[in-house]
Amino acid sequence: MNVESPQDVYARLLTRTEPKRGYPLWFPESNSLLPSEYRNHGVQIGDVGVVTEHGSFDVFFNICLPEDHPLHHPYGVPDGFKQIKLSSRDVESLVPADHRGRVVATKSISQRNMAVSATGGTSA
To answer: What is the DSSP string of 57-121?
Structure first.
């Protein structure tokens, strides 16, 4: 019997729920071994890498950064690497449609809100 890992279940369900949103990462934080400049910005346009078995993204290089950028030092860049320079017209910036506390779930999940209050008494 092949049991799915929690990160695989998470990705499968969220991808099915909202496929246009991209691939959900179980660990969206940047690898702590990457240069601090990169960790502060996180995944960026042009990143090339793989989703690891643990559900994080392991970036190898960024096609939009120059060949000698510190991000490229651990792995280098492929032979024949040519940087792609993007202009502001190439990138679209949208205001996120999500709001704090929004629940993303499959249709089989329902959400109920409940308010509870209690008062304490003294015991004898």
So the answer is: EEEEEETTS-TT-GGGTTT---TT--PPPPPGGG------S--TT-----TT-------------
Residue pointed to by tokens 């090339």: 48
Evaluate whether 49 touches 25 at the Cβ level (below 8 Å).
Answer: no
Query: For residues 5 and 25, is the Cβ–Cβ distance under 8 A?
Result: no
49 neighbors 59 (Cβ within 8 angstroms) = yes
For 72, the token pair is 């490229």
User: Other C-beta atoms within 10 Å of 71: how many?
Assistant: 19
pLDDT in tens, the chain (124 residues): 678 888 888 888 888 777 777 888 888 888 787 778 778 878 889 999 998 888 888 889 999 999 999 888 888 999 999 999 999 888 887 777 666 777 766 667 777 777 888 887 666 5
Residue type, 124: A
| Exposed/middle/buried for residue 59 (C-beta within 10 Å: 0-12, 13-18, 19+) | buried
